Amino acid sequence: MNANSVTHTGLSSCSGEFLDAKLESCFRSSVQAQHIRQLRIALFVTAGLFLVMGLFDYLLLGLSETFLRLVVIRGVVALAFLVLAVALARRPQLLASDIPLNAACLLLITSLILIVPLRTEIIGAQLTPAVAATLALYLFIPNRIPWAFACCVYLSAGVLLAFYSTGLVELQGMVGATLALLLANVIGLLASLRLNRLQREQFTSLLAERETNQRLQLEIKERQRLEEELRYLAQTDGLTGLNNRRWFFELAERELKRSRRDGTQLGFCMIDLDKFKAINDKMGHTAGDKILATVAALCREELRDTDIIGRYGGEEFVIALPESGPADTYKVVERLRARIEQYQFPKEFVDRNLTVTVGMAQVAPGETTLAPVLARADQALYVGKRRGRNIVIVDAHCSKEAVLN
């Protein structure tokens, strides 16, 4: 249920219920379990009181015909209330049905009226159960103000008529009984209306709070999504999907510190696409962009998850290989070079096999920054360019034996 619709939905002045039928149904569904529990307690208590009052009937009347009549009346009411309490537990939908509850209420009221002439010797005490029943009908049977009002009018009229028919209540007593029943009806009706309004106002507030929480959760998720997107944009090259230059250096710096702390080796290589400017000039920048994205994808396929690759700039890529000695680093980049050379690019992208030149270097003992090893890898790359391209050149600091082992 939308919080905006709840805010603008009024309550009936007669019953205190929502004017919106769907909202009223939603409210009743939400409190059904609570109201059934409340009603079942009321039914059990009433049945118990009726049975207990049978003892007082016996003490007052003895084992007489009148007592037996009272036993039948009280027994029928108690049994009906117990059956209804059990039925509500098994079939909660009975709460929304008028017939079972109305039948129980009418049975209770009729029994109270019939008891009056059977116990004329304590006629004054009969007013208390009638007042208590009036308040109970208003307060303990939920969402039934119109029916409760009708039942209470029947109860009040029936009890007063029974008092009058006995001839044992004087005019002053009749006036007092009428005022007492009238006051009970007014108090019960106002209290029931107030309770209905308070429950529905709380329900309205709860729905509005839930709607606010849902909006907040959506805003939080949207903010998290935007933060992730911003983080991705801040760390990723938009064309290739690789780490951008700034983020690559941050990750590589972490690996450098880890390698120094753990005493592990760390390899770097610089990759440059051969004669890429000519491809751009001849085939167009769109074809060039697709080639760069394809090469980036090929690199990711050949590298380990722990390896770090970034776009260094233009058609140049840089790779950091943690825990990789010269031999392992060389095997990886040579395999990568061969993979790119053998890859069949679409003819609309490039009219020849694409090749790359790779410069490779290892972090030397005592180096605390990336600048020296990247400079050596870059220098090895340029050596490869001068030697004809499509080759892996190993930095001179890496011995031939170390690479071949």
Task: Describe the fold and architecture.
This protein has 405 residues and is α+β, with helices and mostly antiparallel strands. The chain is 68% helix and 8% strand. It contains 13 helices and 5 strands. It has helices at 3-7, 21-61, 65-90, 98-118, 127-139, 145-166, 171-235, 245-262, 276-283, 285-302, 326-342, 371-386, 400-404, and strands spanning 266-273, 308-313, 316-322, 356-362, 392-394. Strand 4, helix 12 (371-386) and strand 5 (392-394) form a beta-alpha-beta unit. The two termini are 71 Å apart. Residues 1-8 have low confidence and may be disordered.
Give the structure's gist in a few sentences:
The protein is of the alpha+beta class and 405 residues long. Helix content is 68%, strand content 8%. Helix 3 runs antiparallel to helix 4, helix 4 runs parallel beside helix 6 and helix 6 runs antiparallel to helix 7.
Keywords:
single chain; 405 residues; alpha+beta; five-stranded mixed β-sheet; rod-shaped
